[in-house]
């Protein structure tokens, strides 16, 4: 899909969201008007108008893809969201639940009774059930497992046995397997007998009679080669494969690196037990990216934008409390130099510049380091080399931009010494920002924590307090 096509699709989705919101607003307006009317036919008129609007809204939803409906649900306040959710046909509930964010899914599941949850879950594959199972009531899970056949039940248990960040938790069990000692013509006849191929099938998996993976047969090779050839002659015998206990994000990086659509998952004996597909990898990369952004800001989890005040408070309060403490420390640093500020008022006007530039520089450094760590491009053993590089960049930036602001300070206040202090403070604070920008994520990683967790909050605290102390300290020593 080209950039223009993507923009058109997004514009179309925004238009449909606007139409849904308009219908919801129209329904509220009409209901409000009919409530004000008196007469014996009021209830009948209200019911007819209500049904007409809901039927039109339901018709709009039926024309949308499940992912588009999920997008609309996420963009609506809770009351409107539940109104739209009630209009979705029951046979689409499962697909939509899998598409919405975790926080929105929680609100939708809370609005469903056990019967509706069971009906939605019965339409799902084993890997999809495993994704949804942790959020379903225990009695629903128990009843659902009893309705599955032995193979499906074993697959669900297998998927649930892995952590959510492991390959085994994301693998799909729907795949096509063939033998290596048959002709391509036999394979083609076999495929024609299937009702449909599993989604994202770009290759067939070649296994022996014990289920051990021998190779893969890309669909394009199947189509362009002589039908009389044997599978063994055409297949790729060294495919990229994964083990169920591998890190899922490492697998996602491999998908990006090798342009994979699907890949086999094998156990320690080489037996084929599932496959990974590109859709799961794209979702994983998106979720990881969103998680990093949230962690950098000190948010513990994804938040429904229309969540209750209490839920939002619980998600945000911890790092705000830490930020309050660090802000208080910064204020105490300023308090140490009250006398200096009283003697030279220009210090009060200039010191936020030193702290602000230091904070921006530190956030640039920490963002680059966290991204590189996420891509496995660096590790804790690279700390010293990265530190030297970032310190060199900070030194050059400090001298250049510190010099610029030093000249500005001279022009504003007519003091060369103030300009020199400004330049020195800017340079030293940028060096401090670079140092902490490398050390904070590396230290968090070394102690087993997410290197992005609260990194932005911590670097800002250091550069604020450090910047104030450096600038006011230099000013006290050399200007007063």
From TrEMBL:
<dbReference type="InterPro" id="IPR000644">
    <property type="entry name" value="CBS_dom"/>
</dbReference>
<dbReference type="InterPro" id="IPR006668">
    <property type="entry name" value="Mg_transptr_MgtE_intracell_dom"/>
</dbReference>
<dbReference type="Pfam" id="PF03448">
    <property type="entry name" value="MgtE_N"/>
</dbReference>
<dbReference type="GO" id="GO:0015095">
    <property type="term" value="F:magnesium ion transmembrane transporter activity"/>
</dbReference>
<feature type="domain" description="CBS">
    <location>
        <begin position="235"/>
        <end position="291"/>
    </location>
</feature>
<protein>
    <recommendedName>
        <fullName>Magnesium transporter MgtE</fullName>
    </recommendedName>
</protein>
<dbReference type="InterPro" id="IPR006667">
    <property type="entry name" value="SLC41_membr_dom"/>
</dbReference>
<dbReference type="Pfam" id="PF01769">
    <property type="entry name" value="MgtE"/>
</dbReference>
<comment type="subunit">
    <text>Homodimer.</text>
</comment>
<keyword id="KW-0472">Membrane</keyword>
<keyword id="KW-0813">Transport</keyword>
<dbReference type="InterPro" id="IPR006669">
    <property type="entry name" value="MgtE_transporter"/>
</dbReference>
<comment type="function">
    <text>Acts as a magnesium transporter.</text>
</comment>
<feature type="transmembrane region" description="Helical">
    <location>
        <begin position="391"/>
        <end position="413"/>
    </location>
</feature>
<feature type="transmembrane region" description="Helical">
    <location>
        <begin position="419"/>
        <end position="440"/>
    </location>
</feature>
<keyword id="KW-1133">Transmembrane helix</keyword>
<keyword id="KW-0129">CBS domain</keyword>
<dbReference type="GO" id="GO:0046872">
    <property type="term" value="F:metal ion binding"/>
</dbReference>
<feature type="domain" description="CBS">
    <location>
        <begin position="171"/>
        <end position="233"/>
    </location>
</feature>
<keyword id="KW-0479">Metal-binding</keyword>
<dbReference type="InterPro" id="IPR038076">
    <property type="entry name" value="MgtE_N_sf"/>
</dbReference>
<feature type="transmembrane region" description="Helical">
    <location>
        <begin position="317"/>
        <end position="337"/>
    </location>
</feature>
<keyword id="KW-1003">Cell membrane</keyword>
<dbReference type="InterPro" id="IPR046342">
    <property type="entry name" value="CBS_dom_sf"/>
</dbReference>
<keyword id="KW-0812">Transmembrane</keyword>
<dbReference type="InterPro" id="IPR036739">
    <property type="entry name" value="SLC41_membr_dom_sf"/>
</dbReference>
<keyword id="KW-0460">Magnesium</keyword>
<comment type="similarity">
    <text>Belongs to the SLC41A transporter family.</text>
</comment>
<feature type="transmembrane region" description="Helical">
    <location>
        <begin position="452"/>
        <end position="479"/>
    </location>
</feature>
<feature type="transmembrane region" description="Helical">
    <location>
        <begin position="349"/>
        <end position="370"/>
    </location>
</feature>
<dbReference type="GO" id="GO:0005886">
    <property type="term" value="C:plasma membrane"/>
</dbReference>
<dbReference type="Pfam" id="PF00571">
    <property type="entry name" value="CBS"/>
</dbReference>
